[in-house]
Sequence to fold (364 residues):
Amino acid sequence: MSDLKSTALEATHIQMGAKMVSFAGYNMPVQYSGLKNEHHAVREAAGMFDVSHMGEFFVEGPDAIAFLQKVTTNDVSKLLPGKIQYSCMPNEEGGIVDDLLVYCFSNEHFLLVVNASNMEKDWNHLMQYTNGMDVSLRNDSDAYSLLAVQGPKAIEILQSLTQVELAEIKYYHFVIGEIAGVTDVIISATGYTGAGGFELYVYNEDAKKLWDKVLAAGEPHGLLPVGLGARDTLRLEMGMCLYGNDIDDTTSPLEAGLGWITKFVKDFVSSEIFAVQKKAGVTKKLVGFEMIDRGIPRHGYDIADQDGNVIGRVTSGTNSPTTGKNIGMGYVPAALAAEGSEIAVVIREKLIKAQVVKLPFVKK
Fold:
């Protein structure tokens, strides 16, 4: 346990009886009152996650936009102050270094929010492209805590703690304001659950105060503390990719259904590779599927065609607490990626029937 990093709230989670696990090098809460209980709370009321393991890199300088245009697939020039963009960082081989959020404070001031497991890799990758650029990067990951308050009652709960008009913050926009007596909070209308809500970036020394105040304000509305277990089932129901499972250094954004964040209006790392893929069409695609026969698909299971030939692998899978169905995502040949295509998941050496469905699994 001594090698694991701690978030500012680690002692709080342990005190609250959370089950702690090692995740991305951190000691993190996987569940408190039970995965399904926490999952339903987010879908029906609200839940609060400690996701302080995420990385925060600041990018500043006159060449900030030019730099970000080179290292990310989305079109950063479209960002205005207060706007956020989902994007990914491609490697030189046409794979994905990481997916990330890009926050625009000004044309010369941006924040990149990256996955915890990739922090060092991302930093080293980005630094390669700073040569000749008037840009500076700063890794503030150890200074920030990140609380995600998600669910249909998130606005109502948080509004009681702030003068900021939360309903006026559009999806994928942010403001900096005071909340629960904590100043300089980045209040971001984003999340990884599809249930609506906010992500709140605060300095570590303010994390406990904010956590306690939100819990107290949320209790009458059914808000629960939520662990990483339910975070995974919630994001999977929405068909959202998890780095290391559904996307990695070997998958292209076009194969992963991320063509919408791959903009060919500029030259960027591997843009020529992706342009060829776009023109010719990809040979494999990430799809969502529901099990027809009984069985839960798990990460790493083989996907087969109806004759039993292995054609792909399950990247994520679970029993959906919202629908009760067994669901998964995985890569299959493009010819079998159409909605309604029948495939099979190999579970205990048996072919268990499944059908490709349109994502997300849970419609808003």
